[in-house]
Every structure is written in structure tokens, then in C-alpha cells.
Amino acid sequence: AWGQTSEFQDYDFLQFLGLEKAPSPHRFQPVPRILRKIIRAREDAAASGASQDLCYVKELGVRGNLLQLLPDQGFFLNTQKPPQDGSCLQKVLYFNLSAIQEKGKLTLAQLTLDLGPRSYYHLRPELVVALSMVKDRGAWGRSHPALGRLLTQLSVPGPQGPLQFNLQGVAKDWNRNRLKNLDLYLEILVKEDRYSGVNVQRENACDRLVRSLHASLLVATLNPKRCHPSSRKR
Amino acid sequence: RAAIPVPKGFCRNLCHRHQLFISFQDLGWHKWVIAPKGFMANYCHGDCPFSMTTYSNSSNYAFMQALMHRVDPKVPKAVCVPTKLSPISMLYQDSDKNVILRHYEDMVVDECGC
Asked: Would you call A19 and B94 a contact, using CB atoms and an 8 Å cutoff?
């Protein structure tokens, strides 16, 4: 238009970066240490002029040119009932996979469960974490959804950092039929036999766990147009 | 933001890399770009006379074009272009609470030549 000043065209730059418009997040999500480590290593490499293969994420040992951390948008089940037979927490984890922007192949799907440091010290000594696929979403209304295959069940001794699960089956499923979302069923139990505290203490600890649990899914995608097959230097 | 002037003794109007820093803060994007704070985009600008084309990082083609320009001025001079580029990675958050780490090829001009 006449007289239009040559203002910097945000829009053009955003389009170029693959964004419709400037994101307007209400608040920052916690950024996992691994992503900060990766970007810092890349900035250092760029500053030193070292050549980089940005289609290989050496910190994760996978090929990929785009990493995305998807937040859990699921919900807890049976929060009204007191925990019974050792079950401390039941949650449906829901990840919106249609947010995966890059065309191409999923090379990593890594679930991270951060139970929060404090909650651990009250659920000594052991937790059992069971993770299953949810088979029938329609059954969410009931107290217990229809479950698909058990993905993993592991005992977690004492306090330690976030738990990570590599869901390779999810990556394969996504590459086959572009799942729109991923539903998982998470149950955390306290091992009864060695738990000596009174129930009310366990109940409070389970409530704390419900409040502090944070789940996220880290996915890596490889766009063959941007990344030539195994261009990584041996 | 243009940055430090060219090294001493270098004829300013000859083809060389000019520093230019793109600050995400200046763009008001610091609210969603987590890292980096900005990046050195730089750009190439300057004259490519015949003498320049005999330098190491100029192409043979530039030498030929400069030679032809001498013979017939209608043939345009060789031009100043990037001869080495590098990528950047951006860590940002989108409007749906996803945190994204994406890299972009050929965003930074490291070297220029004719």
C-alpha cells in the first residue's frame, strides 16, 4: 500500500519458520533438561564453526530433524475412592499426536513420568508402575477403561529422577497409520508387603502423588526431504 | 543490528561478509522462543572486480564473468554471494503447550565470495 513503511514482515518470517502465526503461550511448559542440553550443544558447535549433522540427535541416539514435547492432556480415575489393594493412582494419559508437525517418519516416542521428588519420600520403599494401551476410548466413563496390551510394569525402588519409557511400538503404529492421538492407562501401586505406615499416611502420600505427577511425550520425526538417508558421518 | 566494522586494510567496498544479528527480543518473540536469544544471520555485499576473482574463495565462473565484463561491459560483473552457510536450531513453545526443537538449514552466512 502507498506510504506503507518497510516494517519488518513478522508474517513472512513466521511462515518461513513453518508457523501460521506467532504462538502466544499463556505460560511456559517445563523444558526437559535433554532439550536444553541439545540446543546448547548445537549453539556451541555453531559458535565454534564445527560442522553438524542436524538430522541425527546424538543425545538420544536417533535420526530426526524435529523434536516435539507433547504435554499430557489426560485425567485421573477413581479419585473419590480411597486407594485400595495397594493402588495409589490411576490415570488415563492422553497425547494429541495430530500436533506432530513434521511430515516424515517418527523415529522416537519417549514417555517421561515425573512423580515429583517429595512424593517419593512418603511412598517408601517401593512403587509399581504399570502402563497399558487403552483399547476402547468409549469406556472412559467407566471406572476402568478397556485395556489393550500391557506396555510395561516395573518396580521403582526409592527416590530417583523422572522415569522414561521408550514406546517403540507407538512410533511403529504412528508410521503405519498416522494415529490422531495416543491413550495410555497408568496405574501406580504401593507394594503392600513392606509398607509399614498407617493407611491415612499412604492416602495423603497418594494425594500428593496425584498433584505432583507430570507426564510428557517426546517425539522425534525425520523428514526425508530435509535429511538425506543416513547422511550421518560414520 | 549491524555489528563490528570490517578488518583493517580491507577495502570496504569489496565483496565480504557483513555481520547482522537477528534478535528475537527485538521482534517481541522472546515470549515464545525459549532458545536461542537470536542469531548472527549476516549477509554478503560488495564489489567483485577482476582482481577479486583471483582470490581463493571465488569461483572459476566469477573469474570468467569478470573477464567477459572487461571485454564487453554489457556482460554484468560477477556478484557477491555466500560460499559457506550453517544451520540454526530453535527451541520454542507453540500455542498448544507443545515444546518444539527444530533446525533450519542455511540460516547463517559464514563466508562470502564472488
From this structure: yes
